[in-house]
Write a structure and sequence with these properties.
single chain, 22 helices, 444 residues, mainly alpha
């Protein structure tokens, strides 16, 4: 009897299990998967970090906020490509292997970044400029959507049972590192280049860097070991993944992932990518100061993620999720009200750090919680598709909705919205199974 036939209670016969992952293989897998994830998310966040400098190239005319709104709407378009990428790459990872899908994902990201780096502006090629920008962002959306499911699945499967939460947390560690590198590059260029040069041509540099880094990762990923979970499912003759399996055999798991990702994804983008804009446009900090505050808080985030991953290995994944969503639902609005009227960079740093520290309780276990809900033959698709749909619907629209609230003169209404979604995710966590008893990652 197969894992597909029996759902959550399935066990793969011991006779078909491949030998366990060695320490060397595990280290190489974590390093290789994480390096690729870092580059993927660096490329993804560079767009948001440098949007204020290139928005007028593709959407000239009108006021700065209107141009930024249009540019961030393109950012959201990339999010809506993510479910498609999640679906395609999830199926591909379950059928052709995790390693193969991860290599394909980083290739798409390289292409999208290179297009943006060399793309002429509206004054040169007219309406073709914003159209090609949208197409490049769609390529990046397909890549990140596919990357998430394959990477979350691969790292969770290769991490080992005793430290699965800790090691799989490095998916978000590298995501944050990618964002930190993007912000660090932004801070460096803001202090070493004139604003006019940044707006004229300097904003292209980070996209060239991202494309070059992706080429390196393509080489690294071609040399990684395949997941034993995937190999075991293939050896056992498990049924090939199909999209409808999620809705006919695993509807509860699929809905749970969608709902708790809604609050987590919205909060992540509210407290990270939108934060520099909030600090400059609402709190009144200078752009370099806002970048430094956000970068400092992301260092806190970076350190907290493995800590919460470690806690989840001892107390269960639900404990860290309750901390994240419960604390976020209660504190988001009052902390943002305080931050809006703040003029001290140190207090602002402390407030943002509290918010990202709470969110690390979700992000540290985001990958492994999803992976443990599905058997290996449909795991990558099960992880990726509901996540991609929720990230598009709630994460991808976070900045445009925040800016729309700001235009309407009711910016703090956005954080009421954030708190409400996190409260919903808090309730959903009650319906998660205890990973210590019901994990479907069977390999040690």
């Amino acid at each position: 009897m197969t894992a597909t036939e029996t759902g959550a209670d399935a066990q793969v016969p011991a006779a078909v299990l491949a030998p366990g992952v060695t320490a060397g293989q595990r280290f190489k897998a974590i390093l290789g998967g994480s390096a690729g994830n870092l580059v993927e998310w660096y490329d993804w966040f560079v767009y948001s970090a440098f949007a204020v400098y290139f928005s007028n190239h593709f959407f000239p005319g009108g006021d700065e906020l209107a141009g930024l709104l249009k540019t961030m709407a393109v950012f959201a378009v990339g999010f809506f490509a993510r479910p498609l990428g999640a679906w395609l790459m999830g199926l591909y990872a379950d059928r052709a292997g995790r390693k193969t899908a991860l290599t394909a994902a980083v290739s798409l990201m390289c292409g999208g970044s290179l297009i943006i780096a060399i793309l002429p502006g509206y004054e040169t090629i007219g309406v073709a400029a914003p159209i090609l920008l949208v197409l490049a962002r769609i390529l990046q959306g397909l890549s990140v959507g596919g990357e998430y499911g394959a990477s979350a699945t691969y790292l969770s499967e290769m991490a080992g049972k005793r430290r699965r939460g800790f090691w799989s947390s490095f998916q978000f560690v590298t995501m944050v590192m990618g964002q930190l590198i993007a912000l660090g590059l932004l801070a460096l260029m803001q202090t070493t280049m004139d604003k006019a040069d940044l707006e004229s041509w300097g904003w292209r540099i980070p996209f060239f860097i991202g494309a070059a880094m992706a080429v390196v990762v393509f080489w690294i990923r071609g040399r990684m070991d395949e997941s034993h979970s995937y190999e075991n499912a293939q050896a056992a003759g498990e049924e090939r993944a199909r999209t409808m399996m999620l809705f006919t055999r695993y509807p509860r798991q699929t809905l749970i992932i969608f709902l708790f990702t809604a609050g987590g994804s919205l909060a992540f983008y509210a407290f990270t990518t939108y934060m520099p804009k909030f600090l400059t446009g609402t709190a009144g900090f200078a752009a370099p100061t806002a970048t430094a505050i956000t970068a400092g808080a992301l260092v806190v985030y970076l350190l907290a993620l493995p800590f919460f991953g470690w806690i989840s290995d001892h107390m269960g994944r639900k404990a860290t999720l309750w901390i994240a969503f419960g604390g976020g639902a209660v504190l988001s609005y009052p902390l943002m009200i305080t931050l809006a009227g703040q003029d001290s960079p140190w207090i602002a740093f402390a407030l943002v750090s509290v918010m990202v520290f709470l969110m690390s309780g979700y992000n540290a276990v985001s990958a492994v919680v999803k992976a443990e809900l599905f058997p290996a033959n449909v795991r990558a698709l099960g992880v990726a598709l509901p996540y991609g749909l929720a990230a598009a619907a709630f994460g991808g629209t976070a900045e445009p909705i925040a800016l729309a609230f700001k235009q309407a003169g009711a910016e703090m209404g956005f954080f009421v919205y954030v708190s409400a979604l996190m409260a919903l995710s808090f309730v959903v966590v009650f319906f998660l199974p205890d990973n210590r008893k019901h994990s479907l990652i069977l390999e040690d």
